[in-house]
Amino acid sequence: MTPEENELLTRTGSGTPCGELMRRYWQPAALTEELPPGGAPLPVTLFGEELVLFRDDQGRLGLIGLHCAHRGADLSYGRLEDGGLRCIYHGWLYDIHGKIIDMPGEVNGGANFRESICHKAYPCEERGGVIFTYMGPGKPPLIPNYGYLTVPKEHTFVTKIYQECNYLQGNEGNIDIMHLSFLHFNKYRDTGGPGVSPVQFSGQGGAPGLETTEADLTDFGLRVCKIRKVGSDKKYLRVGNFVMPNLSAPPGQYNGKEGYLMNWHVPIDDTHHWKYIIIFNREKIIDQEEQRRTRIELAEGYRPVRNKSNRYLQDRESMKAESYSGLGLIFQVQDVCVTEGAGPVQDRTQEHLVTSSDAAIVVARKLMLKGIQDVKEGRDPQHVIRDPAKNNLSHLFAYSAVVPQDTNWKEVCNGIAAEARR
Ligand code: FES
Ligand SMILES: [Fe+2]
Asked: pLDDT for 217-250, tens place per residue?
């Protein structure tokens, strides 16, 4: 990539081309569990914008500029009362639309003056344990009806993890399915031989010439397939997805009709982001505690226990027998080390992509560049959905199976998609 292209795809502040692209989609602002009814207002930084998220005394959600329009006090310390959020400095009161509805120090509550002030505010919607916001212009599109929004809450698990790097290298890690065979090669899983389940193949070590990845364009972005030879007449397929503009549905613990995992990489600013992790299973209730224990290691504030400051607690002794990485056995945690390892913003002018595994990353970048161009020219970018009849994501799935050698994976996936849409 040129330095200019790298800048273009990694800068998401207000007014930047990629920031404008991102603002055409609903984006996660917080987890529902972070803002319980009656809870304190939550300061949140999104795409470089300092904001405060709150529920008014009727439980309605507001997301407004963090700094008071009067003299800049931090509104997250404000009082929740009288239909809004009241600044503790001089008592100005904001409703969920950012409208100032009282200036108690002024004659008449500042009735004339307060009308003239326009305080930043973004609409919010709460769905499936996530509070979403739309920070773009005009009428918001629909929230895409991803699989986890179609099942009861108990069939889902949502959390998030703080990452000290740019969103793009986080999301590109999902598109790069090849790394499953290396970074996530936990040897205890590598039982091999007959009886190994398809999911277990994902954790087996890579070997030269054994694997390749291919991609196929879809309406939401890209379907990506890792193909691995199994014996002389079979192959293993593992299919994940890049979803425009900053999320992915990579292969996780569930696949096919069961459900899938979504990793949504939301910029805090250009050098930090939240990775929202959403798991769902259509067929069974998900044990929340088990997920927390086995899928993620989090300290307070959704910070990873293993982080840069403690060198991700890498245990070199464990690299001999337990895991390829020496970073414990949890995939999400292993990912933090390598994505942050590329620096606050990866310098892609220095990378050397390879044909066997990086083609999907190249295509995903092209889709992003096309989206930026679409916004610039006044069009809705790909995967902005406005028609309720088209808000069906049943053709988005993860897939994992051992199949005969001559199977065409694109045909298999198109068949599953067509079946799911029926
Ligand atoms: S700074 Fe908020 S009311 Fe004065
Ligand atoms: Fe990973």
From this structure: 999 999 999 888 888 899 889 899 999 999 999 8
The DSSP letter of residue 166 is -
CA of 180 to the centre of ligand 2 (A): 6
Ligand with an atom nearest the CA of residue 75: 1
Separation of 179 CA from ligand 2 center, angstroms? 7
94 close to 101: Cβ distance less than 8 angstroms: yes
State residue 208 phi and psi, 5-degree precision: -55, 135
**Cα–Cα distances in angstroms (integers) from residue 351 to residues 7, 77, 245, 361, in the given order:** 15, 44, 22, 12
Residues 227, 355: Cα–Cα separation, whole Å? 14
Ligand nearest to the CA of 327: 2
With 0.85 as the threshold, say if the pTM is over it.
yes
Which ligand sits nearest to residue 93's alpha carbon?
1
Alpha-carbon distances of 395 from 9, 365, 412, rounded to whole Å? 27, 22, 12
Show Cβ contacts of residue 83 under 8 Å, excluding neighbours closer than 6 positions: 56, 57, 58, 93, 95, 101
Cβ of 87 closer than 6 Å to ligand 1, yes or no, is: yes
Each residue's pLDDT tens digit, 49-86: 999 999 999 999 999 999 999 999 999 999 999 999 99
**Pocket test residue of 71, 85, 101, 103 for ligand 1, highest count of atoms within 8 A of CB:** 71
CA-nearest of 419, 27, 74, 410 to 223 is 410
CB-CB contact of 86 with 68 (8 Å): no
